[in-house]
Amino acid sequence: MSRDTVTNVAASTLARLGNLAKATGRRHQDVVQTYALERWLARLAASPHADRFVLKGALMLLVWRLPATRPTRDIDLLARTSNDLEAIARMVADICKTPVVEDGMDFESASVVTSRIAEDALYEGVRATFSASLGSSRLPMQIDLGFSDLVTPGPERIAFPCLLGHPAPMLNAYNRETAIAEKFHAMVKLGELNSRMKDFFDIWAMVTTGSFDGANLSAAIQATFRQRQATMDQHAVCLTEAFGRDQRRHTQWNAFIRRSAIADAPSEFPAVMQVLRALLLPIAVAIHQQRPFIDQWPPRGPWQPA
Hints:
Oligomer: single chain
Number of strands: 10
Largest sheet: 6 strands, mixed
């Protein structure tokens, strides 16, 4: 394809993304960044490396088509590979160069840099950063990879939604139960120090719009805690009423909602925690008491007997 054609595709794509941002009331840069993440995932899906990665994180809120989502500027993946920095850099660069339908994106494979991360001092992983462009727009790309987590009962096969009607990339991805389990573990581990408002939002968004089987969610939580060598504590700080009423967290929550430009989330943090406590406390008690949990969760709850 000629350089002029590629330039025209990029310019046309930027215009269409601008129209989409206006039509949906989203920030223009958020829409363009989401498009870049989507198109890198399209290259991942088309590459020989596709089965080595499982999509997780904020982009899964788009897959689950939740009415309330939050913008993200990175891709989170569970990697079924060595965590060798050079090997990961080569794979990411290969994915950047994988041919797909012309979409105007240029991922600069030569710019890939990998480094060790221990985000929030919770889990060690690897971060790959590189540059991308869509016409005149320069876009920083970040891929965060974890290596040792379990997906219970296993990854799902999903079609990632596309903003402009491209063929949907088929990817391995987290299920909602494991996503909740990992976020719950972070809540328990961090306790009073927790400022990760995105975890509270993500769980709230999932459980106010979807139904859950208690046995499946309990199994995912137990598997995650076991894999991370953590003990379930039914008296964990994050499950107390005082945690939800803390004014510091109310301030952090409002700052998160404002910064993320989320329109459909509660303005009061205690309202969020009321839902999360109703979801998680009964499971924590059942696990602590070593008894099955088989109730059913309708959207917004509470748990109903099976």
